[in-house]
Give the backbone structure.
Amino acid sequence: MRIEKIILAIAGVFAGLFVAGIAFYIYQTTRTISPSSIKTITLQKPTPADGSSVLLAIESPADESVTTSRIVTVSGKTDPSATVMVTTDTQDNIVSPSGSGAFSLTVTLPVGENRIFVTSIMPDGQENQKQLTVSVVTDNF
Amino acid sequence: MKKIITICILTIVTFLAFAQASFAISPSPTPVVSKIEEQINNLKDRIASRVAQLNLVEKRGILGTITDISETQFTITDMSGNNRLVDVDELTKFSTPSSQKSFGISDLSKGTVVGVVGLYNKDSRRLLARFVDVQNMPKVYSGGILSINKTSFTFTFATVKSDTITVSVEDVTKTLSYTKAGGLVRSGFSKLSVAQRVVVVGFPDIHDKNTILASRVIIFPDIPANPKIPLVKPEDIAPITSTGSGKKLTPITK
């Protein structure tokens, strides 16, 4: 009689786990999330991390990059009201960013190691400058 | 009672059978690995090793000033002020704009500005140089004009780092002016004014380190100079009044 009770108890536990497992599986596969419960996270506007109060983020080219093309696209993001100046050792280019602050322009570089100075100048005179090194090579290595 | 026990046993058996099915894993490999499988595994290892090696090394180009040099390597301080280790081997090619004859690592010295292109190892953080070029690059400054000397065609300007630099405008100097309305247009020395924002590209005068021989001057009439630069505007200077004693009071500037 005692053994029967123990077996019955164990069987009951297993049966309970089995039923609970099936119920949990059915719940997970059939549940839907209502749109009202979805929490929207909005990323804050990035702030310059280099001590300057003017935002300037360069997307391309990467610093210290090596390319086989002499024509290089300089693109990035800054304040929409800023003026962006791109200076190389041989030429100067000035553009105004779009409404979203994005800017893009092409520069022609000589073969070898080149510096590209990207300066974002605000209407009040504050500025942020970033310097890139871009190498143009003709030989494969 | 027997019925209940039978039902319970059946339930447990069913549950264990489901559990076995859900935790089933792929059949264990046979212990006997054939020669072909061994070759495939070997090839896989070699490919994985090569891919890892390729991911570890990338082409990079850096610019900097040599701070330490030996027979097979040198250290440079790059434009951001970081020390970078550069290795040199028999495949490294050296060049200098001033000499056409053979040039090597023994011709380099501390203080020389070089550009290095090579293979950068992300793990060891060393650059295996393939090309080393001695550089003679112009300086690029941004600042505000402090004073203008129209007789000697020079002007002084201050930078954010509080440097005061004299700029000599030469015949070859290209002077440009930028406004939002007109864009970048040609300008001249006469268009310069005190407190104006200016960008100067040029080379240091070998006779005077504080003087820059300008190759390009860009002025921004619409945009003021960086507020961090202490500039004395013409309207800020108080008129000098006579004391009647023959001596003139001069404004005290700090």
Chain A has one helix and eight strands.
